[in-house]
Amino acid sequence: MTALAMYLAMIFGTDVDSPSWVSFRNGGSSTINAADLPLTWSPTEGIAWQRELPGYGQSSPVTWGGRVYVTAVVGPQKETCVLLAINANNGEVLWRVESPASSGAPSNYAVARAAPTPVVDDRAVYAFFEGGDVLAVSHDGHILWKRSLVRDYGEFDNHHGLGASPVQTAESLVLNIQHDGPSYLISLDKRTGETKWRTPRKSCKSWSSPIVLSQGERTVVVVSAGGSVEMHDASTGEELWTMGGISGNNIPSPTYDGELLFLGASLSDFESTTNAARSNVCLKPNTAGGFDVLWRAKRAMCDYASPVVAGNCVYYVNRVGVLYCLDRVTGSEHYAQRLPGPCWATPIVAHDRIYFFGKNGVTAVVRSGAQWKQLAVNRLWEESSPPVPETYVETVSGPPAGGERPAGSDASSRGGASQSPSGFAERMLRNDANGDGKLVVEELPEESRNWLTFGDKNGDSVLDGDEIRAMGEEFRKRRENSRMLSRDPIVYGVAATDNAFYVRTGTRLYCITNLKTDEATK
Questions:
Q1: What is the DSSP letter of 21?
Q2: Contact at 8 Å (CB) between 354 and 366?
Q3: CATH superfamily placement of domain 19-385+485-520
């Protein structure tokens, strides 16, 4: 077993060499030691089965014991939370658990729809929904417990919903509840659902998921969001270490390879690419129990997908689908190559292959290493005839107020709502502490302070009303096509087992395998 496999086995009580994909990014590495994953497929070859799902969902699948578990929300206001257990071999639905949502929102492109990915262990599947509901369901489909974080701790104030996925230790679930209202990191007992601890966090819009690490005898939780990265004791919630000075880290999640910690960050609105790249950071543990910066990227950045590590290289994919391969220890750039399209799902690493599952259903398979070598390009559907939802109907209503960014699991509703310049100005001026109709840098949220450099056209270090409205017009132009770019089919997340991929779009689940159809359905 590799060092990474041993680390994951210790943290999650399972062996990465086993054919299970237990959580979002399989514990944070998006790596599996699979023996026989397919290299090539097409709409007519290699797809063992596909199944239309109820409602809509943006979570990734998880697998355990020959089953695929996947979530969805149903209803025009996302009134019902759904968890499905599906036979991994033939796509048969084994059971379906439904639970009423504690709070709702229009089921449309601008709002998270079953965005958080569940986690699974030998006892149960644990699902969190952006409406605030958490469920533990046994492998035979019985609800063991459920609770509403909204009822216990207040409504979530995020116009696009929450998308951060839970992580797990042997005994607990940990969730990052970060939004414009009172935010917190919370640990729930897996057996009862009761709160073990709850630690306040800075309020901001974030969809980055935490990860669990081992530091000597201590298990810790690392969260990268809102302009900083923090480490907490997994047993108590105590903050052990923090580092600020990061921007654009509200969607990509951190990646740990058993030795080094990689932070992904995207190009924020009104930010320079140079500054954004510097927030894609590699950290190494120090003797004080925290981390030091080992290097900062010069060009490479993420947007939706998180970084992945393969061998001596780390890989980043930006918003237009440019892949950057860097040396994992020095940060030096080996190459930059354009993929067939942007990736909203984090790539999967299997031995010496990296699978980049494009938003558009096109997957590029690349050989790991410092030299660019593309092994295959595969389509999940024909470009001229993409599958359309069979039963899901998007709620016909305007997007919610706001529009800064869509919510995300691996990608969530990655479009963003279009809004008027006046709406943008109104939202910006909520930060106007002294009510003078202007903004200085101290009044801006930390992660948005670079906006002043972009918007301050007269150089007086203040954003006045005209400058704020001009920024709103620029923002509107950037988002005007977002509605059409956020329509299904979109590949949101992927899970892998020993010989198959399970690919999830908003309304459909695909099984891709090397096995012939008759073998796969036995």
A1: -
A2: yes
A3: YVTN repeat-like/Quinoprotein amine dehydrogenase (2.130.10.10)
Task: Count the Cβ atoms, other than its own, within 10 Å of residue 260.
Answer: 18
Strand positions, DSSP E, 305-385: 308-310, 313-317, 322-327, 333-338, 348-350, 353-357, 362-367, 374-379
Query: How many other CB atoms are there within 10 angstroms of residue 449's CB atom?
Result: 15
User: What secondary structure does DSSP assign to 425-459, as a single string?
Assistant: HHHHGGG-TT-SS-B-GGGS-GGGTTHHHHH-TTS
Question: What is the residue extent of each domain of the chain?
Answer: 19-385+485-520, 421-479
In this predicted structure, what is the pLDDT of residue 133? 98
From the number of C-beta atoms within 10 Å of its C-beta (0-12, 13-18, 19+), residue 407 rates as buried
Contact 69, 63 (CB under 8 A): yes
The residues near 395 (Cβ < 8 Å, ≥ 6 apart) are 76, 77, 106, 107, 108
| 8 A C-beta contact, residue 288 and residue 394 | no
Q: How many of the other CB atoms lie within 10 Å of CB of 437?
A: 12
What is the side-by-side strand order in the sheet with 255-256? 255-256, 261-263, 281-285, 291-296
Find out whether the peptide bond into 421 is cis, omega within 30 degrees of 0: no
- DSSP state for residue 27 in the 8-state scheme: G
Collect all residues with Cβ–Cβ distance below 8 Å to 418 and sequence separation of at least 6: 399, 403, 476, 479, 480, 482, 483
pLDDT digits (tens, 9 = 90+) for 42-92: 999 999 999 999 999 999 999 999 999 999 999 999 999 999 999 999 999
Amino acid occupying residue 228: S
Distance CA 53, CA 88 (A): 14
d(CA 435, CA 397) in angstroms, rounded, equals 33
CA–CA distance, 350 with 356 (Å, rounded to integer)? 11
Query: What is the token pair recorded at 313?
Result: 């290289």
Share of the chain above pLDDT 90, in %: 68
Q: What is the pLDDT of residues 12-35, one digit of tens each?
A: 444 444 468 999 999 999 999 987
End-to-end alpha-carbon separation of the chain, Å?
Answer: 30
CATH of 421-479, one of 2.160.10.10, 1.20.58.60, 1.10.760.10, 1.10.238.10: 1.10.238.10
